Amino acid sequence: MSDNIKVIFGFDMETDVGSFTPYYDGVKNATAPLVELFDKKGIQGTFYYTGDAARRNPESVELVKQSGNEVGCHSLFHETVGDELFPIPGVVPLLPEEVPFRIEKATEWVQQVLGEQPISFRAPRLWGSTALLNSLEKLNYVSDASYPMYFYRERYVPYNPSSADWTKEGDMNIVEIPNFADMVMKSNDPGLERDRDQWPLFRTQGTDALMKHIDSFVKFLKDRNLPVVLCFYFHPWEFIPIQESYHYGEATVTPDRFLTLGCGDKAMKEFSLLIDRLKDMGSTFHRADDFARLWNKGEIR
């Protein structure tokens, strides 16, 4: 199974363990090793910063910029800017009318550190919405990688969304890039079908287990004469040692084990192996902004 496979690696530069802690140890300590690995492997990707992460970690932003990788945006404070897919304690989605201001402010904060406007976006938890896409389009973003294929199960390849419904094709300029999921496997998660999602199998089960899902999905696309685009999401905190629980403020937070399992050296080892396996398949690796431009030009189909 090879030839003409496009890969987009995205890192969501956020607080450690997503919304469960206020710390930035992953952004502080994993950016350099990841950039060095990309340079060693001769590939590039996109690092999506929350506005707060960019402001608090300007050296990380500068490192990504100088390495030739893309700096994108990941909301203001890792808030829910789209439609909620499942409940998370203490997390309340923004109202649709609040979204434009928050996206403008997030863009502004990243731009202040980066020196130019970010033009690629990913919503925290892949929770996008029509209000979000319209806000991004207004700000001239060229790509969004928020579509959770495992949940909507309608879009398997990138598309230009509709301003009336972001999950449908339309005439917007921005390119929506669905996040890879195994659409062939039998799901054991009725309704949500979250077990189709690729994350975080590379560190919880290993690259070999993930590659079985990748091979299955690549065949699924090729059998339908669809272009093969694999969009992945990772987080810098996955590549440092992570505690199973954290105490701060007035409570102890213990995330579900899959969120912290295999973080640190194992994740880095498996991620390096994943790059090699994808290269063996003949894959090429793209920044999200460059990919979107090529897609809109019709050069990747």
Automatic annotation (TrEMBL):
GO terms of molecular function: hydrolase activity, acting on carbon-nitrogen (but not peptide) bonds
Record SUPFAM superfamilies: Glycoside hydrolase/deacetylase (SSF88713)
Superkingdom per UniProt: Bacteria
Domain NodB homology: 15-229
Matching PROSITE patterns: NODB
One biological process term in Gene Ontology: carbohydrate metabolic process
InterPro entries in alphabetical order: Glyco_hydro/deAcase_b/a-brl, NODB_dom
Name of one Pfam family that matches: Polysacc_deac_1
UniProt protein name: NodB homology domain-containing protein
Organism: Paenibacillus agaridevorans
